[in-house]
Known about the structure:
By secondary structure, the chain is mostly helical. Helix content is about 65%, strand content about 5%. The protein is globular.
Amino acid sequence: MMGAIRNRRIVAPVVQQLSLPLDAKPNAKATERPVDVVLAALVIALIAFGVVMVYSASAVQATLHLHDPQFFLKRQAAYAAVALVVLFSVAAFDYHRLYKLTYPVLGGVGLLLVLCVAGLGKSGGGATRWIALGPVHIQPAEMAKLALVCWLAYSLAKKAEKVKTFTIGFLPHLIVAGLFMFLCMKQPDFGSSVVLLLLTFTMLFVAGAKIGYILGASMLGGVFAAVSIMSKQYRIDRWMAWTNLEAHKAGIAYQPFQSVMAFGSGGTWGMGIGKGLQTLYLPEAHNDFIAAIIGEELGFVGILTLCLVYLALVARGVRAAFRAPDDYGSYLAFGISTMFGVQALVNLCVALAMLPTKGLTLPFLSFGGSSLLVNAAAAGILLNVSRQGMDPPAPEAETPEAPPASSDFELGDDAFANALAEPAGLEGAATAKEDA
């Protein structure tokens, strides 16, 4: 019984914080509280490690094609510097202020996606995924992930218990996510579409949507994915090459085959940073397949450590979600943590040829400004949620139980109680005991 009461005391504050009203206002005192130091250190370490690995993975190709071995290094270092500014600026920005910016951000990102597929985007690698603003190239699909997370957090927190209904709590979220997925597919960007769908289902599950709705939509999504693959010949070719890398290693499976070779040549401890040879053969090694270079140069231990870092990043994000002062903050933290985890998992699986090529970046590590800056902004939001998080409830001191009555008083309990009510006090109690 005492154990049950103790558990109730510990769990109650967590349950209570998730049911606070949605109109939770910005907290001016939150700026005085520290952010999650472990979370901040993980993000900064990933950004710095990404600069090092981009240089290691791109120096050979940059020398051969651009005659500047530090070409990608200089750009990634500049992106990293801006990303750190974005990270700490957003961390100091109260996430409650994002509440009113939800629809402007969602609409702006949607417009950029429309511009991409309307012929105003910049093409590269057989896809139109970038908007060129002078020397700056923006990838709206990266922004769409964070924009969708912010909107889902806003909508799910606002609807509360109505999330369990189909027409109000489930269908509208699926429609908005489906629209963003459709625009990504038209670029085409199949990998981002998959991430958007997984983000939506995960956040709906966390919010308490009915499992039956999620399973039904998942089956429809599987059918849609199969139809999408079968509708394009290059996707069929990729699928067939993935099922038999050896037979297509000189053709369409050249990139994943070389990636697997990089992991294999790394062994346990790797060949050392800057000493890998697959940078000579693996196309775009500094982009989507940077994990293969990490595997070659740092070996199994390096990849395992990287996986543990991403796992710790997601865990600290979920921790911030549980400690958030309101539903909106909880959903934001859960969604951003899922975004990091899903992208890292899919990218590593593609690099290991466990999944067909998807074209997804590895968060904080792959070369590119759009991905790095969006992930830095997302991490900043996560840090702000952690800054405003409630402290874990301290266990309350237990009230000592009264000692059991001695056997000497078994015969005089009633007389003892009556004696206490009289002015005689304990002397009356003793007399009553002797009379008894």
